[in-house]
Amino acid sequence: MLFHCIREVLEAKPGMFPKHEELLPRAHFGKVFAVWPEELGYGSFDMQAQPYSSIKRLQDRRNDTIHKNSALTSLAMAKSALYSAVEGARGIALHFRGTDGFPYDRVLEKYSLHVQPWFTDVAFIDRRT
Protein backbone atom coordinates (compact mmCIF):
# COMPACT_ATOMS: atom_id res chain seq x y z
CA MET A 1 0.00 0.00 0.00
CA LEU A 2 2.82 2.41 0.86
CA PHE A 3 4.54 2.15 -2.51
CA HIS A 4 1.23 2.27 -4.33
CA CYS A 5 0.29 5.51 -2.58
CA ILE A 6 3.76 7.00 -3.17
CA ARG A 7 3.51 6.10 -6.85
CA GLU A 8 0.09 7.80 -7.06
CA VAL A 9 1.54 10.99 -5.55
CA LEU A 10 4.48 11.01 -7.95
CA GLU A 11 2.28 10.31 -10.98
CA ALA A 12 -0.17 13.05 -9.97
CA LYS A 13 2.65 15.59 -9.78
CA PRO A 14 5.16 14.58 -12.46
CA GLY A 15 8.50 16.33 -12.23
CA MET A 16 7.74 17.85 -8.83
CA PHE A 17 9.80 15.22 -6.95
CA PRO A 18 12.52 14.11 -9.41
CA LYS A 19 14.75 12.61 -6.70
CA HIS A 20 11.91 10.41 -5.47
CA GLU A 21 10.90 9.42 -9.00
CA GLU A 22 14.46 8.28 -9.65
CA LEU A 23 14.84 6.43 -6.34
CA LEU A 24 11.43 4.74 -6.24
CA PRO A 25 12.29 1.59 -8.22
CA ARG A 26 15.10 0.73 -5.77
CA ALA A 27 13.75 2.36 -2.62
CA HIS A 28 13.84 0.50 0.68
CA PHE A 29 10.63 0.27 2.67
CA GLY A 30 12.15 1.59 5.91
CA LYS A 31 13.44 4.79 4.36
CA VAL A 32 10.28 5.41 2.35
CA PHE A 33 8.10 4.74 5.40
CA ALA A 34 10.13 6.94 7.75
CA VAL A 35 10.99 9.91 5.53
CA TRP A 36 9.12 10.17 2.25
CA PRO A 37 5.59 11.06 3.43
CA GLU A 38 6.83 14.30 4.94
CA GLU A 39 9.12 15.03 1.99
CA LEU A 40 6.12 14.64 -0.33
CA GLY A 41 4.03 17.04 1.74
CA TYR A 42 1.81 14.58 3.62
CA GLY A 43 3.35 14.80 7.06
CA SER A 44 5.25 12.00 8.72
CA PHE A 45 3.66 8.95 10.30
CA ASP A 46 3.50 8.99 14.10
CA MET A 47 5.88 6.09 14.75
CA GLN A 48 4.85 5.95 18.41
CA ALA A 49 1.18 5.33 17.54
CA GLN A 50 -0.65 2.36 16.06
CA PRO A 51 -0.70 1.09 13.41
CA TYR A 52 2.61 2.69 12.44
CA SER A 53 4.68 1.32 15.33
CA SER A 54 3.45 -2.18 14.50
CA ILE A 55 4.33 -1.69 10.83
CA LYS A 56 7.87 -0.81 11.88
CA ARG A 57 8.13 -3.91 14.08
CA LEU A 58 6.73 -6.07 11.27
CA GLN A 59 9.37 -4.68 8.93
CA ASP A 60 12.12 -5.40 11.45
CA ARG A 61 10.85 -8.96 11.98
CA ARG A 62 10.63 -9.53 8.23
CA ASN A 63 14.25 -8.42 7.83
CA ASP A 64 15.34 -10.69 10.70
CA THR A 65 13.59 -13.61 9.01
CA ILE A 66 15.05 -12.86 5.57
CA HIS A 67 18.57 -12.56 7.00
CA LYS A 68 18.07 -15.69 9.11
CA ASN A 69 18.45 -13.94 12.46
CA SER A 70 15.11 -15.41 13.45
CA ALA A 71 12.43 -17.41 11.73
CA LEU A 72 10.54 -18.69 14.74
CA THR A 73 6.88 -17.80 14.94
CA SER A 74 3.69 -18.74 16.71
CA LEU A 75 0.02 -18.69 15.81
CA ALA A 76 -0.43 -15.59 17.99
CA MET A 77 2.36 -13.83 16.10
CA ALA A 78 0.84 -14.78 12.75
CA LYS A 79 -2.63 -13.55 13.69
CA SER A 80 -1.19 -10.34 15.08
CA ALA A 81 0.94 -9.83 11.98
CA LEU A 82 -2.05 -10.22 9.66
CA TYR A 83 -4.21 -7.88 11.71
CA SER A 84 -1.44 -5.29 12.08
CA ALA A 85 -0.56 -5.45 8.38
CA VAL A 86 -4.16 -4.91 7.27
CA GLU A 87 -4.70 -2.08 9.72
CA GLY A 88 -1.32 -0.64 8.73
CA ALA A 89 -2.31 -0.67 5.07
CA ARG A 90 -5.56 1.06 6.04
CA GLY A 91 -3.64 3.69 8.02
CA ILE A 92 -1.27 4.37 5.14
CA ALA A 93 -4.14 4.65 2.65
CA LEU A 94 -6.06 7.03 4.89
CA HIS A 95 -2.92 9.10 5.45
CA PHE A 96 -2.41 9.65 1.71
CA ARG A 97 -5.92 9.36 0.28
CA GLY A 98 -8.28 10.50 3.01
CA THR A 99 -11.35 8.86 4.50
CA ASP A 100 -12.44 6.80 1.49
CA GLY A 101 -8.92 5.83 0.50
CA PHE A 102 -8.73 2.23 1.68
CA PRO A 103 -9.80 0.04 -1.25
CA TYR A 104 -10.34 -3.18 0.71
CA ASP A 105 -13.13 -2.12 3.07
CA ARG A 106 -15.75 -4.05 1.07
CA VAL A 107 -13.64 -7.22 1.17
CA LEU A 108 -13.14 -6.86 4.91
CA GLU A 109 -16.88 -6.39 5.40
CA LYS A 110 -17.41 -9.76 3.76
CA TYR A 111 -14.37 -11.51 5.29
CA SER A 112 -13.90 -9.74 8.57
CA LEU A 113 -10.71 -9.91 10.58
CA HIS A 114 -10.96 -10.53 14.29
CA VAL A 115 -9.26 -7.88 16.37
CA GLN A 116 -5.86 -9.11 17.53
CA PRO A 117 -3.12 -7.61 19.67
CA TRP A 118 -0.92 -5.17 17.79
CA PHE A 119 2.36 -6.64 16.58
CA THR A 120 4.23 -4.36 18.98
CA ASP A 121 2.44 -6.10 21.86
CA VAL A 122 3.01 -9.70 20.84
CA ALA A 123 5.83 -11.70 22.44
CA PHE A 124 8.44 -13.18 20.14
CA ILE A 125 9.61 -16.76 20.55
CA ASP A 126 13.04 -17.01 22.11
CA ARG A 127 15.49 -19.29 20.28
CA ARG A 128 16.55 -20.84 23.57
CA THR A 129 13.11 -22.31 24.27
Task: Give the gist of this structure.
The chain is an all-alpha fold. Helices cover 56% and strands 0% of the residues.
Which value, in Å, is the CA radius of gyration? 16 Å
What's the overall average pLDDT, rounded? 94
What is the share of helical residues?
55-70%
Sheet-strand content, in percent, reads under 5%
What is the total domain count?
A: 1
Number of DSSP E strands:
0
Extract low-pLDDT stretches. none
Q: What is the general shape? A: globular
Could you give a short account of the major beta sheet? Answer: none
Structural class: mainly alpha
Q: Count of helical segments?
A: 6
Span between termini:
35 Å
Order of helices and strands: HHHHHH
Topology:
Elements: H1 2-12, H2 18-23, H3 29-39, H4 52-66, H5 75-97, H6 105-110
Helix pairs in contact: 1-5, 4-5
